[in-house]
Amino acid sequence: MFAPTKTHRKWHKKISKNQRRYATVSALAATAVPALVQARGHRIEKIAEVPLVVKDSDLATVAKTKDAVALLASLNANDDLERVKSSRGIRAGKGKGRNRRYVQRRGPLVVYSGKATDAQVRAFRNIPGVDLVNVQRLNLLQLAPGGHLGRFVVWQESAFKALDSVFGTRATASTQKRGYRPPRAMLSNADLQRIINSAEVQSVLREKKPKRQFHAHRKNPLKNFGALVKLNPYALTQRRRALLQQAKGKTARKSTFKANRTQFTTLLTLPSVAPPRGEDEMPTRY
Predict the structure, then answer these.
(1) How many CA atoms lie within 13 A of 281 on its CB side?
(2) Which one, of 103, 100, 66, lies nearest residue 84 by Cα?
(3) Rounded to the nearest 5 degrees, what angle is found at the Cα of 221, between the Cα atoms of 217 and 223?
(4) What average pLDDT does this structure show over 23-47?
(5) SS3 141
(6) β-bridge mates for residue 89, sequence order
(7) Measured CA distances, 39 to 24, 42, 44, 150, 152 (Å)
(8) HSE on the CB side for 176, CA within 13 Å?
(9) What is the pLDDT of residue 212?
(10) pLDDT (tens digit per residue) in 209-233
(11) Is 14 left (phi over 0), alpha (psi -120 to 50) or beta?
(12) What DSSP element (H or E) covers 153?
């Protein structure tokens, strides 16, 4: 990112209202897929079902933080709260000096309908990683933090029933978004691998042909003489002449060595006679 700390940096980009609603509805649908929720890192192995819906009376009785913690514990969401608590750490980089010293993961998102009391807001606000939001104010930053779909959502029963009136259905339009309807799915079953491997599809397909591949071995002509002969047939004649010349030179060296050895042996067998020296002749100094 160029010049992120400058005042003229363009941080936001305007998109159409339909695209924003499309993204929100898609993120909302992803919260109902257990595989996507687990892939995002949430610990939902012990919860009863996904999406998780609680009664209105259970959420209405929450007045303190201990009540909110007890409610989440009764839903077996303690593992996800512990994950958030253990993930808190110091941020890397310059953000530590800009009032962003700590980072931590996101936990469950509690969605309610109507108007929440100040006590309920403070109760859930004090739990690390837990967010509280009205069903009419759902946005993409809460449903898919960091652009990753599949957040763990705890629904109030009335809020879950109000989704049809907020976003509409295939048969009826939304009453709060001026005739908006959610996009229609292109596939009723998005698991393409399951469709291809189904018995109905496999029964009408032809048998799989064996795939025979021929991999040519590339040989280096500088190291492989056969590959060199294919490129240059005259290389065979050159090699033959070189071998004959080498053998001829070897025979000549043997004969020369034998002659020199015979001559040296003859000189060694001759008697050694010292030359006469006069009385006045001085010995030569070397």
Answers:
(1) 6
(2) 103
(3) 95
(4) 94
(5) helix
(6) 103
(7) 19, 7, 11, 8, 11
(8) 11
(9) 84
(10) 888 888 888 899 999 999 999 999 9
(11) beta
(12) strand 153-156
Amino acid making up residue 140:
L
Across 33-51, average pLDDT: 94
> Given the structure tokens 């994950």, which residue do they identify?
83
pLDDT score recorded for residue 74: 94
Scan for tokens 């002969």, then name that residue: 229
Query: What's the rounded Cα separation, in Å, for the pair 91 and 106?
Result: 15
Residue among 261, 33, 9, 58 nearest 159 (CA): 58
Quickly list DSSP for 181-237: -PPPPS-S---HHHHHTSHHHHTTSPPPPP-----PPP--TTT-HHHHHHH-THHHH
pTM strictly above 0.70: no
HSE-up (13 A, CA, CB side) for residue 261: 6
| Other residues' Cβ atoms within 10 Å of the Cβ of residue 143 | 23
Tokens of 49: 């079902």
DSSP per position, 94-117: GGGGTT--EE-----EEEE-S---
Please work out, in degrees rounded to the nearest 5, the angle formed at the alpha carbon of residue 48 by the alpha carbons of 56 and 88.
85
Helices assigned H by DSSP within the chain: 17-30, 34-39, 56-60, 65-74, 78-86, 118-125, 140-143, 157-161, 163-167, 192-196, 199-202, 225-231, 234-269
Q: Under DSSP, is residue 274 helix (H, G, I), strand (E, B) or coil?
A: coil
For residue 4, the 8-state DSSP code is: T
160 neighbors 31 (Cβ within 8 angstroms): no
CB burial class (10 A; 0-12, 13-18, 19+) of residue 191? Answer: exposed
Identify which of 156, 25, 143, 154 has the alpha carbon closest to the alpha carbon of residue 80. 154
Whole-angstrom Cα distance, residue 187 to residue 222? 59
| Count of beta carbons in the 10 Å neighbourhood of residue 76 | 15
